[in-house]
Amino acid sequence: MLSYQHIYHAGNLADVQKHALLAWVLDYLTRKDKPISYIESHAGRGVYDLMAAEAVKTGEAAAGIAALQARFSPDHPYARRLAETRAMYGEMAYPGSPLIAALSLREGDVIHLAELHPQERAALAREAERWGAHVRGEDGLKMAVSIAPPTPRRGMLVIDPSYEVKEDYVTIPKVIGQVARKWNVGIVMLWYPILTQGLHLPMLETLMEAHPDAFRHELRFPPVREGHKMVGSGIWMLNAPYGIEAEAAHLDRLFRKG
Ligand SMILES: C[S@@+](CC[C@H](N)C(=O)[O-])C[C@H]1O[C@@H](n2cnc3c(N)ncnc32)[C@H](O)[C@@H]1O
Questions:
Q1: What is the pTM of this model?
Q2: The domain spanning residue 136 has which CATH number?
Q3: Domain membership flag for residue 1
Q4: How many structural domains is the chain composed of?
Q5: pLDDT surpassing 80 at residue 15
Q6: For residue 104, what are the domain limits?
Q7: Residue nearest to atom 9 of ligand 1 (CA)
Q8: How many angstroms separate the alpha carbon of residue 33 from the centre of ligand 1?
Q9: How far are the Cα atoms of 17, 120, 124, 135, 178 from residue 43, in angstroms, in the given order?
């Protein structure tokens, strides 16, 4: 039984890193006049209210989007998606990755989303209908393998688990291997936590061994609460677009400012 709900963490530093890079990649992909597929295995509810009791309870957005948004130039793809989200859903709305994708994509592009949590899925399905996205209530990793290679063939897969199921650390490299064999041009973007106990390290070693040219970006930050085991967040990406290193360096400067 899954209990994780992203509303408690929406807009935190890990979200800013992940969503800023995602918005940049999607902007890159949509510059070419060719349709793309966007597949996301762990979608969440798509849009979050930062004034909701759950978000206020943890207050994680304060050190994340609230502190950092002014550092993004208004024409950065992430800043544009934030502005569009607020215009659609109100000033305190924050876009999850499916909404960032829906706002970035064009007619003719295709979105496949999986979400297992019944409440999260119901909320996502209500919105996704407006966005023209397909939502499935199945295991997102299985969905990704079954869809690859998608039509259109250009595009990306986002894997953003909560790692509630510790088996994910072992399953994910296997799934990425299967997807990469079936879809050698697909961009695969994986989010992972940096944990004091190093639980994420064997997964990364396996991934880097199998895909030595993959891109990696890590952001370190203080734990949100005393004793909290997450001390940073990472993005691992296969077939990352040209220019990603420069964008990551730009984000590093932006995270360090202040
Ligand atoms: C970190 S949240 C996703 C946040 C979202 N990607 C974003 O950035 O807006 C992870 C989500 O995955 C869902 N989930 C967990 N295991 C899953 C699985 N095997 N297949 C699909 N969804 C799953 C959880 O219910 C949760 O909503």
A1: 0.97
A2: 3.40.50.150
A3: no
A4: 1
A5: yes
A6: 6-256
A7: 96
A8: 30
A9: 17, 9, 8, 9, 20
